[in-house]
Amino acid sequence: MTSHSEEAESTILCTSKQTRFDIKNPVHQELDIEGLNITVAANPGKSAVKPKGKAISEGLELLSNATLKLKAGIHYGLVGRNGTGKSTVLKAVAQKLIPGIPLPTRISILQQTDADKETVSQNIGGQSASNSQNHLSVLEAVIDKATSRSEIQKEIDVLSRAIDGQASSLAPLHALRQVQHDRMRKELFELDKDARLRSGTRGMAARKALIAGERRFAESEERLTKKDEDLGHEVIVEETQAASDLLVELQSQLEPARIADIESKAKTILSGLGFPKANLDKPVSTLSGGWRMRTNLASVLLQPTDILILDEPTNFLDLLGIIWLEKFLVQLPDSTDTPPTVVLVSHDRDFINAVCQELIILRDLELTYFRGDLVQYDKSIRDKQKYLGKMKDAQEKQKSHMQQTIQQNIKHGKASGDDNKLRQAKSRQKKLDDRMGMQKNERGGRFKLNRDYGGYHLSARSEIEIPQDEKGVSITLPPAPDLRFPGPLISLEKVTFNYPTPKKSATPAPVVLSEIDLNIHTGDRIGLVGLNGCGKTTIIKLLTETAKPTRGTVTRHPRIRMGYYSQHAAEELQTLGLAEPDLTALFLLTRDINASTDGEDKLDEGEIRGLLGSLGLPGRTASDVPLRKLSGGQLVRLALARLLRKSPQLLILDEITTHLDFHTVTALAEALGGWNGAVLVVSHDRFLIRRVVEGIKDSRGDEDGEESESEDEDDEMKRRRVVYLLKNGAMKALERGVGQFEDSLEKRVKKLLIL
C-alpha cells in the first residue's frame, strides 16, 4: 500500500509503503520505512497535490524506492555529495511528511541555512519555531524554545487573570474554554496532517478522527459564543473548578526548582558552545548569524526528543566547541534512560568518525547503510573494488577463451556437418549470455540467482560492477608561475596590532597581536589554528593589506600574486546572485577578467570554461545556471575560480570547507597537497590541516602511497610545513601540529561537560 503526502510551502512530495497492521506501542526512537520516494515539486507556487504516484516524477527526484531504517539510540552520519538532497530528506523526516512516521514521535532538527537566517525547526506540535523570541536574552530564548515556556506562561496568564480578577464570576469559565479551544486548534492541525499522510484502513480511521475533531472544534466555537444566561449552575461550578485545577497543573510545570535545573543545563550547553557568561543576557536580536545558530543548537540539545537531527552543526563553531559537541553527543546514551536516535550531516570527517556508529549513504537515489566510521567505509570500498576487479579480470579472460571455443566449434561443425559441435557451441553461448556474471555474492558464498539478484524471474546474471570511488567533483589547480628572483613571498616582522583607543575612553584598546613573526616562501604549507576571537582574521587582514600594523613591518615580494578566500565568500556570491538574477558563473568570471587591469590574466572563453570545469563547474552549469540557484559547494568552487584565474603564488584560505561535502573536501585537500604554490590555511577542520599542512595522507589514498611519495620526494624536501597556534596575541609553532592543539582542548572540554 502506498500513500501520498505533500507540504505546500516546502513542496516536498513523499510516498512510502505502510503496514496494514495498527502498531499500538511503537518505539518512537526507531523508523522502518520501505518503498520511500521523495521528490521536490517543480512548481513551488502551485498546489503539490497529485492524484497518482506517477505524477511525482515531475519534480526533482531525491529518493526512489529507498529504505529508511533508524535503530533506537544509534548515531548515524548521513553522507552524500552536494546537491543529492541530504538537507531535504532530513526536513521531510523532521516535518513528518513521510507516511509511516508515528505522529507522537518528537523530532528536533537544526537546519543548515544562511548565517543571517539561521532558524531551528522543531516538529513538536507540527509547527516550526518562530523568531518571536528575538526580544528575549540568549538564556531565556534557549529555555523558551526547549520547554515551550512562553506558551505555558500565556495559558497561565489567561487563567490567573480570570481567576484572580474581579471582573466577573464567569471569567474563569470563559478563560478555560478559550485555552481549550486554542489547544483544540493545534490538535485539529495534527489530525488533518495525519489524514493526509495515511491511506487504506488506517487512512480511513484517520479521516474519521479528523471529522470527529472538526465536530469537536465546531462545538468548542459554539461554547465560546454561548450566552452567559444560558449556562447552568452545575456547568459553572464544574468548569470554574477545572480552570483552577488546570492553572495549578501549568504552574507546576514552571515551578522554580524545575526551571532552575533546566537553566543550569542550558548554561552548561551554552558555555560548551563558546558563549561567554557575559553574553547570556544579551538579546538574541543583537547576535550575528553565527551566534544565533549556536543559540538554536543549544535549544535543540536541551529539549527532550526521540530523534535528534543535526544538519552541519559544526558550522560557526571553533575547535573547542566542536570537541565539546563530540563529547556531548557521545555521552548522550549514558545521560538518559531513553537516549534519542541521532542523525547528522557534517563536512568534518573527524567529527563524523568520533560521533557516529553507522553511516547512511545517499547515492543514486538510494539509501545504503554501513556499520562503522568513514575510515572503515573507505577501506571497505577499496577492498570491494579490489576483490571485484580481480573477479572481473578473471571472468573476462574466461569469456574470451569461451568465445574463441564457440567460434571454433561453429566453424568445425559447419565444415564437417557435425551437429554435436553446433549444439555444444549453442550451449556454451547460452552459458556465456545467461550465466556469466556474478559467480559469488558479496559475502563470498556461491551466487544464487533467486537470492542474490533482484528478482527470481530474471533469466540472466548481472554483470560484475565495480563500485566507483565517490570523491565528489575532481579539482585541479593551475600551477603557480615562477618568480623572476628569489625571496619570501610575504614576511611579518615584530608585528603588533591594536585598535585605536576611543576618544572618550580612558582605557587603552587591548592588544590583538603582539610581536608576530611569520615568513612564507614558495611551496610552504602554513596552518593557523586558535579559538574564535584570537586574532586569526586580523593576521589575514595584515597579509592581504586590508589593515596596517600598529608596529612592525609587513614585506611582500614585488611580483607576488595572492588569492584570498574569505569565509563569507559563498554568502557574498549568493547576495550578488540575488541582486542580479540572471548572472551566471561564466559571465561573472568573464566580467572579472575584462575589468582587470592586469594584462597577464586575460583568458578567452575556452580557457575560462576549462578553469571552471577543472573546479567542478562544467558546461551548462557554468553558462546556464544562475548564481542564485547554485549550491553552497558550487559557490565555493566559483569563488576559487575567481582567485585562480590570476595564477597566484600564495593562497590564503579562511574556513573554505564550510559549504562543502566531505567528498569534495577530500578532493580539495588532494589538489592543494600537490600544488606548487604556497598555502596558508585557517580552519577548524582537523582533517584539512593534517592533509594539506602536515602532509599526512588520508587512509583513502594510502593504497598507492609509496608511488606518490616517491614522486613528491623532491618537492617535500623543499616544502616547509608548520602549524601555528594563535593565543593571547602571541603565535607559536606546534611541534605535533593540530593534534597538539586538540589535546590541549580535551582538558578544557571535560570541565564543560554535563556530569
Topology:
Blueprint: E1 2-7, E2 12-17, E3 31-40, E4 60-70, E5 75-79, H1 86-94, E6 107-110, E7 120-122, H2 138-147, H3 149-164, H4 171-197, H5 200-225, H6 233-253, H7 256-272, H8 289-302, E8 307-311, H9 319-330, H10 332-335, E9 341-345, H11 349-355, E10 358-363, E11 366-371, H12 374-416, H13 419-434, H14 449-452, E12 490-498, E13 511-520, E14 525-529, H15 536-543, E15 551-556, E16 562-565, H16 569-579, H17 585-595, H18 605-614, H19 619-623, H20 632-644, E17 650-654, H21 662-673, E18 678-682, H22 686-693, H23 705-711, H24 713-718, E19 721-727, E20 730-733, H25 738-752
Parallel strand pairs: 5-9, 5-10, 6-8, 8-9, 14-18, 14-19, 16-17, 17-18
Antiparallel strand pairs: 1-2, 2-3, 3-4, 6-7, 10-11, 12-13, 12-15, 19-20
Question: What can you tell me about this protein's structure?
Answer:
The chain is α/β, with parallel strands linked by helices. The protein folds into 4 domains: 2-124 and 305-372, Rossmann fold (3-Layer(aba) Sandwich), CATH 3.40.50; 125-274, no CATH class; 375-452; 490-500 and 508-752, 3-Layer(aba) Sandwich (Rossmann fold). It is built from 25 helices and 20 strands. It has a 7-stranded mixed beta sheet, with helices on both faces. Strands 16-17-18-14-19-20 form a 6-stranded mixed beta sheet, sandwiched between helices. α3 packs across α6 (233-253), α9 packs across α25 (738-752) and α16 (569-579) packs across α20 (632-644). The protein is flat. The chain starts with a strand and ends with a helix.
